[in-house]
User: Fold these one by one.
Assistant:
Number 1:
Amino acid sequence: MRVLKKVVSVMTASAMAMSLLAGCGGAKASSDTFKIGSIGPATGGGAAYGLAVKNAIQLAVDEINEAGGISGKQVEYKFEDDELNAEKSVNAYNTLKDWGMQFLIGSVTSACSIAVSDKTKQDNMFQLTPSGSAEDCTKYENVFRVCFSDPNQGLKSADYIADNNLGTKIGVIYDSSDVYSSGIYQKFAEEAAVKGLEIVSAEAFNADNKTDFSVQIQKAKDGGADLIFLPIYYTEASLILQQAARDGYAPKFFGCDGLDGLTAVENFDASLAEGVMLLTPFAADATDDLTVKFVTSYKEKFGETPNQFAADAYDAVYAIKASIEKEGITPDMKVSDICDKMKTAMTEIEVAGLTGTITWDASGEPNKEPKGVIIENGAYKSME
Amino acid sequence: MSFLTYFINGLSLGSIYAIIALGYTMVYGIAKMLNFAHGDFIMVGCYVIFTIVATMGLPPVAGIVVAIILCTLLGVTTEKVAYKPLRNAGSPLAVLITAIGVSYLLQNAALLIFGADTKAFTPVITWQGIVLADGALKIQGVTIITIVVSVLILVCLQTFINKTKAGQAMLAVAEDKGAASLMGIDVNKTISLTFAIGSALAAIAGALMCSAYPSLTPYTGAMPGIKAFVAAVLGGIGSIPGAMIGGLILGIIEILGKTYVSSQLSDAIVFGILVVVLLVKPTGILGKNIQEKV
Amino acid sequence: MKAGRFSKKELTTYAIVVAAYIICEILMLTGIMSSHMKGLLVPICYYAIVAVGLNLCVGILGELSLGHAGFMCVGAYSSALFSYVTESAIPTAPRFIIALVIGVVMAALAGFLIGIPVLRLKGDYLAIVTLAFGEIIKNIFNAIYLGTDSTGLHFSLKDMASMGMEPGGKIIINGAQGITGTPSDSNFTIAIVILLVSLFVVQNLVSSRDGRAIMAIRDNRIAAESNGINITKYKMLAFTISAAIAGASGVLFAHNISSLTATSQYFGYNASIMFLVYVVLGGIGNIRGSMIAAVILYMLPELLRGLSDYRMLIYSVVLIVMMLVNWSPKAREFREKHLSFLKIKKEAK
């Protein structure tokens, strides 16, 4: 009996080994197309973010290819799932490397992006993360990002609240198990002290406990908070708004780019989000041509309203396109040479994208301005 | 007064754990298997209700009825296909692992069908609840209804198990499958029935859970499933009133721990108390002590 | 059946590992192996190691643990902390060895301390308490803030601000963001060596007098006790060793990817359950089987990458089917009857 099992196991194992080897032989960049790869969570808890990036890049690549490609060359695109797991993210990176990837847009989340950046550093592969916002994501010179860094968002939020006198007693609800959320909160707390904002309650939740927010809301209420700062994603925010409304508590709510997507939650009672303010570089309701076109074709193709992850990823593709054109990069160059050229090109280009007009400095940080928006009648309205 | 507010919040959360734990403990106590996919049955029930109520615009009652029917079918089918062949596999762990496989399967199927985006569930309970002490205290409608429904289910289950033939058969199967079948009890049928009831309860629990916390993703059921398991163990495995008490206590501890100790360490507190309770009373709050025999 | 000190079965296990190592090395040297596969080698090893360790607890000791990811977490954090702090002070090889020792010792200590209360319980109650301890460990590591500045070490379980650090101080553990920048000291050779050592420890334990005592406890506790076997001692021994091996796996984990965070994907109950899947699929008590199952199950979703959207769905179906085929009495009977010609020799157990 056992023997049979072993025979089966060995056969399976060898079949696997064969299939692995079959696909190898080292990637050659001899083809005549640019190869862009991307990594993010397509299954598991972070799937909403990863799939948004996956779809938006697909959209951008299709547009570019239809319009004749980059410098006359077509673009190939492949997305790999990392299940929100840094180790799987590295596996995904290696898979893409075997495929012959020349540009990496990813990983979508911070911890994954940091783990992958160690490998791209070794290979000198160009990496542009659309949404890896932790400070350490861009510590290597080959890594750039499209989104704001967490400290930057925390800083800007505190400044914005203080400068516009939105509130003096602040309650914070953040996700202590999330790099993005705790990163923003840390800097926010520092800057709030400088600006004279009083944080009356700072209560955490975590990935395993993100449905009941009664304690966090009650503590803010008990502390007399007139503004609640939410450096979190829209899924949890929708629950917080709903539970606060149920308790009859109506402070101002202020969030970062993670709140974008709130009004697009299917079947969500948009009246709950009325008056919520957020600092975001992208608003799906904006009326400029680029955003309207992007949002319409995204909805048409994928049946969902794009969020800021999608917008950042879309801009990432156009940043790569601009850099390629700037430096005259061709698909037959070595990955490492492309990366070296990209490093200089990225600091020279200016991309008028969905998330604003962006330039980059050599540290990999984008320079763009977040817009303060307020939700009115279910739509975003600029606060300026 | 503020303690009372937090206590009531704890009760709200606990009532949700309790109603999930009731379904969980049915399967767990009688079929003696940890159905890791129970939380995902709840998720399926929620998506069914969501589709019928929010997408098709039918009344919530229709949604709940269809969800109960579909979840029952799903539960019975799963048992037949994935669990029954392994009932005599030699180790109870085999079926546990298959249950994990079923859990992955349901989550990923839901991901493909409904997408990863959060859906806002339309609460099936619209009653706002009652306000006490001049508005300082508020008990939500969904909490009251959940507790009432839980008690109803509890009474029905106890009556069913203790007073009917089928219920007695369940107890016999739980005690000793072999002896039960020798006494002329159809073990397969009894276990199927157990799964049917457990899964129907999952649909009801889902409707109430998503009314209290109206956000729905393919992973909505996973964590409450584990919490319900914890509640069932805390209350004493196989004890139906124990599951209910365990659920309520778990919810209250969680909220009070978050409030008075630390919101960062809330899990550590909940599980820490679980450990202490089980060390003091190793078979849970209402569990029976079984003397080991040689 | 004994070949010197080792049984034939044990030797075969070592031989399989060494052969796999040699094949992989040859494939790497000749450049045939893809980078994807190369990247999988170390993770495969540490999951095989933790599966071997867990099998000692589940299969040999007979106690269901759902908290082994917690021990892995202890090993990972303690060793990563050491390596991170001493990265510039100590050269790579001795640093990694010390880190490994620290990780294993800390995990063993955690296993010992947790084992004292846990092993008094039985069955599902024991399982749930190990799950509880695993979650407690994960939750605490998630809340730790640790940093240094000119005034010394700062520590907090709340947030960064409450550490009261001077500006410019160095943060070592940053709460949920964990430890970033652990040197990548793991490699395939080290991982294989640790796997072999773990196998050696477990297999030797199993075939020793102590091992027989442990299995006697598993099979009939009361009978074992009445034969004068010290139940507590042997249970603690097996549980502590099992935790220590999980800790070794954690050390490899922490030194393989540079961002270490205590999130559920790596150290939650989900991960513990995944390890249990390796053990059960490979055969409870079958050390070699759990190692092979870990390899297959870890590689499976990677090999299914070509299916893109349907990958995890297919994976779950394959998992269910494999369980049914491997464990169902009917399927076993069918194989006995119709596939008996595949039986090359009689089982040597």
Note: Residues 1 and 200 of chain C are 18 Å apart (CA to CA).
Number 2:
Amino acid sequence: MSLSDYIKFQRALKGGLTPWEIAEASGVPARDVHLMEVKHRRMGEDDATLVQLASYFGVPLQDLTARREAYRKRLTYFLEDCRREPVAMDLQLESGEVVSGSVVWYSREAIALQSGEQEADVVVVQRPWIADWRCNGTPDWEVSASAATSKSAG
Amino acid sequence: MSMLRNLREKKGLTVSQLAAKSSISSRVILEYEEGQHTISLNHAKLLAKALWVGIEDLMPPAGSTPAYTPPAPTPGPRPTPPPSASPAPRPQPTPGPGMAQPPRTTTDSGTHPRYEAPRTVRPSSSDGQDGRNTPAGGRVPKPVRPAPPPPGPITEGQLEELQRLAVKLEITTEQLEERVGKKLVELNRPEAKDWIKRARAMVEEIAPSREAPYGQWPESREDQEAAYLKQQQEAGSYFVFKLFNGEQVSGVIADFTPYTITIKLHGSNDEMVLRKLAIAYYRRTDAPADGSVLTPEIAPVQAAAEAIEAVEAAGEAVAPKAAKPRAKAKKSPADGVESDRAGEPVTPEMDNMDEDRGV
């Protein structure tokens, strides 16, 4: 998931915190939290900010920096490709669960996959819960694979 | 015949055509032509423009009654009259039918002053003729505009673009040149521009671009989720919601907002408001006919209640709408999770409209 979605995910885990509460507690300006969460562009992703947020959420810094490569539009491009082809895809959720199906529609906040043969067999996944994605039948997950490649290249 | 009618007929226009061209009503034009009224300055300008003549052309020839008398010239340097011309001032024409009254001033019999339009003084040439187009008369002839330069040759960028497009069209440069009818380097800029446009259209036809312009993504155009929820609400579809803590609740969609979904719990009249933030996913399914639940061990209301308890313990990700019997949460998923809201007293649900607030 993108950094934006990850912040939402963390907010949910923390019981539905607002960006203001995060800002107040973490020291990151509310505007930056808001921009990171809402904007399509990759804003406010500097290391200093992420260190503050990682410390606040109690997660390793790597959990946040890795999100830079999983930016929102990357998933959007992938979804659009899958919708046009059309090919089925797998979504790996943060819980480890995998949801499969072909893309019916997608919006800023959710993705609908047709998981069964019937048209009504639709599962709507909220974006903040998507950890990774891939084409159905492909062994590698998109984000994990690219992260591993860049790590080995580095 | 008045000068106005004379000019109009000379131009082959009917009254209505002149009216259309000058934006003056046909009736007024007819009145001018019949001499019932004098032509006002504004109308004279419009008519002169429509007839492609000068305002002074609306004046009748010397000795006859003019259709329009321009206002007196403003004081200024007046060229010396030619020696052959009479030193006597030019006699003012007598007002008559179809002729405007001479401009009046405040001193003119105490009537209201009349607006005098600024007028340029046209100096006469030494031969007594009108000074138009005579450099000696002080008027500089309009310089002839030079012909536009011929279009330049094809630019390097255009050439590169055409070659790139040829590759995309899977043809060689020679084949493209054959199609163009000459060598690419012999094209001029407008021709090259035109061919680039055509080639791009061909490329687009063969392989539509994957790029979507900014702001044109389906996700930004419309809220697909809202449309889907509306459709399912109307259909009375039954859904199972998987919450962030792993719990499941099920029911029919009663209402929804951009940030919440209200469901009517299966087997009861209770409603529950789920914050989307707390939902991992939801799936349409068939409603259990016997009122049994999705998770065999827990009854739906009990499962919902537990989910509520669990979420409330974590800070109100799910807010119940109606009071309902609740089982005590045995274990909260927020246990062990550091939260500055955990354990706080129940407070009204903070809405999640932060996106609309524009921090």
Note: The two ends of chain A are 22 Å apart (CA to CA).
Number 3:
Amino acid sequence: MKLFYALGNPQTFYKLADQLTQKLGFMALVILLTGWGWGLLFAPPDYQQGDAVRIMYLHVPAAMLSLSIYAFMALAAFVVLVWRIKVAGSLMRASAQVGALLTFIALITGSLWGKPTWGTWWVWDARLTSELILLMIYVGLLALAQQLGNNASADKIIAIICWVGVIDLPIIHFSVKWWNTLHQGSTLTVFAKPKIHSSMLYPLLISLLGLALFCAWLILSLSKYAILQKEYQKDWVAKLCKN
Amino acid sequence: MQKLTTCHFFYVALSYGCAGMSMLAMAGYVYWQSLKTKQQLKQWFANESNTKK
């Protein structure tokens, strides 16, 4: 709990975020290029889909992270509503921007994967439609944030709307089980044994880690600049600028 | 089979191209935010020192 309150302090959070972002960006780039390079050049083609399966190393991590980032944003929204911590508000806004990017990438790459494997760019299937709704929720939250400005009461309204959107997460996750969909079931699950061969699994996990680190870099960078813009009247910002 | 593989590479290249460009755009946005913040703080401190004078 002590750590939680310490991180809630804008100055402490800024220092930590500044240190982390200096290392995270480079690490993310190296890991992401390793994962994608492995997936594109050395992983075997699929016996049915051929080389089109290489889109998986981009599409699956993007889709998984689009949901994870929303869950993280909802957690930050909860902190905003309960403890009214400013840092959580900045993290929530930054997560909405990065989550929208990841959902966009997941939809575009999914469409480009669908054409050679399903023979169509788009179907109004439960998984695809619910993911499109997630993008709309992200864009709606960003529009609202832009309209309401950068203050505590705006953070509260965005946090409430964010929690309304949480209903879409289980729908996206379980859509392939609840309905008959063209989209395949989950390839990676936390507890069950993976359904793909290790020659494809390892590059997929490395790509997932690389993309997750890239998202963490984006979220932390955007939040630290947002905090500086919010706290510009405070002494610690003045000291920081003098140094 | 050869034609099919070439066709698949087109979709793979397009996917990674689109995603790469989007990610670069987002990294550019982060860089722009850093410049904007520095500019705003500089402006604010300049105004502050003028007011004190």
Note: DSSP finds one helix and no strands in chain B.
